[in-house]
Amino acid sequence: MKVPFIDLKAQHLPISDELRRVVSEVVESADFSGGSFVQKFEEQFAAYCGTKHAVGVGSGTDALWLTMKAMGIGPGDEVITVPMTFFATAEAITMTGARPVFVDVDRESFTLDPEHLEKAITPRTRAIMPVHLFGQTASMDAINEIAHRNGIPVIEDASQAHGATYKGKKAGSLAHAGCFSFYPAKNLGAMGEAGAIVTDNGDLAEMLRCLRNHGQDSKNHHPVIGWNSRMDGIQAAVLQLKLRRLDSNNELRRRHAMAYSAALDSFDGIVPPCECVDAAHVYHIYAIQAIDRERLIKTLTEQGIGHGIHYPVPVHLQPAYRKLLGHQPGDFPVSEQSAKRFISLPMFPELNEMQIAAVIDTVRNAVNSRRAA
Ligand SMILES: Cc1ncc(COP(=O)(O)O)c(C=O)c1O
Fold first, then answer.
1. Is pLDDT above 90 for 372?
2. Which of 21, 58, 110, 273 has minimal CB crowding within 10 Å?
3. CATH top-level class for 8-241?
């Protein structure tokens, strides 16, 4: 049985009438760029995350970049983040003119390791940006404590963690600001590109609203230089509809992850993801570690089981950052080792029991063939 890595068509089929209806509402109102649909979504998303404000923007990358711009971060500054993330986290830092300073991840959650954080702080550090990798929050108490002691704001990259919680509080509400991507494949995905920032800080939200709209605070009055990163009305209408299903879909993802982990836990050379105390994982990505990844990839490919690698090269070893920052293999060993071992299995709410069983059987076959070899 073939199993896709992700199946957006399966997600949209049961809500296709509603999707058409909400898109036609936007078409009929012609409220395409910013406007009432965006405002409504912002209110709903802020309430969902438990923050006072949400600001819709064009993408998750813009959310990160504009948040740092709004905080006045620029050339000569440093922002601490992790190398085990999607490239955009570091890219957004670089695009402000600041320098990304990497801190390795821990061996359990693969999120920013607070043990290494303090020694990465310098007088130039202007923000700390933990990434809630794969849908699990970073160790926020320890990170916030170090940040607070050093007077540095924390910006969560929550692009993979819509609805994840830490000690019962939602991702995005755990620090000064939380940045989200609504790229279509995310747990809350648009039908195109979109992103948002959530925060309790009214001044920050106001500056972000200004920056995303060419630095305007009112029509034709530009107190600062901004950009065009307005969320569009169609995405906001789709996101309002999908937000209502986010918790139940996350619950399904968690259930599938439990089924995978219960079986894979006993397989030789396979390490399922770990759920940390205090963090409720929402499994945007279900990534296992495989000692013999090549063999597993070969078997999955032969059997038509979708898979991915998140991420095969840690950001500090990407050519762009090797050139810019001079990093070498060995600089961040946990990120580098996990980049060699991670493999992501099919994960989406609509997965059925037969598909899950087919994935597990295929991993078992790969493990057995390794043992026999
Ligand atoms: C951790 C992380 N940060 C940032 C982004 C960037 O989001 P976008 O693709 O919406 O610009 C992504 C999206 O893939 C991501 O996974």
1. no
2. 21
3. alpha beta
263: CA distance to ligand 1 center in Å? Answer: 30
Closest CA to 159 of 210, 106, 91, 214: 91
Residue 299, phi-psi category: left (phi > 0), alpha (psi -120 to 50), beta (remainder)? alpha
Q: For the chain, what is the mean pLDDT? A: 97
Q: How far is the CA of 309 from the centre of ligand 1 (A)?
A: 15
How many A from CA of 372 to the centre of ligand 1? 40
How much distance in Å is there from the Cα of 82 to the middle of ligand 1?
14
Task: Tell me the three state secondary structure of residue 344.
Answer: strand
Ligand 1 atom with minimal separation from the 182 CA = 10
Across residues 196-209, what is the average pLDDT?
98
- The model's pLDDT over 231-287, given as tens digits with 9 standing for 90+, comes to 999 999 999 999 999 999 999 999 999 999 999 999 999 999 999 999 999 999 999
Residues in CB range of 114: below 8 A, 6 or more apart = 139, 142, 143, 146
For ligand 1, residues with CB inside 6 Å are 59-61, 85-86, 88-89, 131, 157, 159-160, 181, 183, 195
Reported pTM: 0.98
246-372 classified as CATH 3.90.1150.10 = yes
Question: Quick one: pLDDT at residue 370?
Answer: 78
Q: Whose CA is nearest to atom 14 of ligand 1?
A: 86
